Amino acid sequence: LVHPAHLQTTCTSSTPCPVGIGSMTFNNSRVISSAPGCKLSFSATFMSSLNATSAPIVVLCERNSKGHCIQRFGVNLTRFQRSCCESPFLARPSNCTSIAQSDSPLSIFQCVQLDSVSINTTTSVNVTFLAPYQSDLVNDGQNEICLIAKDTAASNTWSLPYCIVYQVERCSVCVSRGQTLSTLAAKFGTHWTQIYSGNTHLNDPNDIAEGQLVRWGLVYGIKAQETLLSLSLRFGVGVDRILFWNPQLLSLGTVPPSTPASSPAAVNSYTTGYTASSTPSSTAAAAAAALDDSAWGAETAGDQLARFLPAGFKICVAAEACFLP
Fold it and tell me: Are 177 and 94 in contact, with CB atoms under 8 Å apart?
């Protein structure tokens, strides 16, 4: 446990904040590491600072480019909603989208649940975040969840946002019940010793806990004019294996081989995808555009193998060849 970290007592325009906030379980100045499909929770306690007779109201919010925190409602992480979070964005059924989040169907708040309990002058909240499928690709895997509070007697004044950053790691997984390094290695086509050597926090390879974060492969940045075929040759594995590790490669816009990758036209002719955006809505649009595979539909398998992949895009590789320069 750490000492509670309190927000400033002055809000914007020198207005006194209606509440003080402290976290009893973690330090929100650090980044919390996660992986797609991992479900993690944090708890925080809000205490009224202006009105000692009532408990504050606490809600979820999402900061926009101007720093304003827009209220979000979250969802109830039922089994069905969890399955939605584990589905590709564009493959989610329409009933996966909460009505409250209809303005941003790709919002991470579709996979966030807020529970709160008020006792006397304090409100304790528990926030559960299920890292959605492909959330490691959006904004380089950084997902921010904020909380704001107001005193019931000060309905027009909210506290400063109390934000927690989740870093959804590439090439990583949360250990499921009964999984071992050997079963993880078999799943991703590698050897358990490679996984063990890449996870220095594991003391005993035979003792991994359910929910533990484990990296199963290394991150490789695609170089200019690399293709699926050249990656296959570089790492000594089949194209099917590369696509198994990186299914998003089939839905990224690419540079036609006839266009020099170094030219300005080439840079602007393909979708780099998942570029950090200033607003949630444009982030959703960028993700949707990057996941749109309509451009690939009319191509032959040979064309797909020969098209240049976006330089700088990071992929996962779990083969011995990934240790080569």
Answer: no
Q: What's the pLDDT score for residue 25?
A: 57
Amino acid, res. 296: W
Residue carrying structure tokens 């979250």: 74
Structural contact between residues 36 and 136, judged by C-beta atoms closer than 8 angstroms = yes
Q: Compute how many other C-beta atoms are within 10 angstroms of the C-beta atom of residue 33.
A: 14
Give CA–CA dist 293/244, Å, rounded.
16
For residue 110, the tally of other CB atoms under 10 A from its CB is 24
pLDDT tens, residue by residue, 174-190: 998 888 999 998 888 88
pLDDT tens digit string along 96-126? Answer: 877 666 656 668 898 999 999 988 888 889 9
Return the closest-CA partner of residue 144 out of 101, 107, 96: 107
* Mean pLDDT calculated for residue range 203-229: 89
- In this prediction the pTM is 0.74
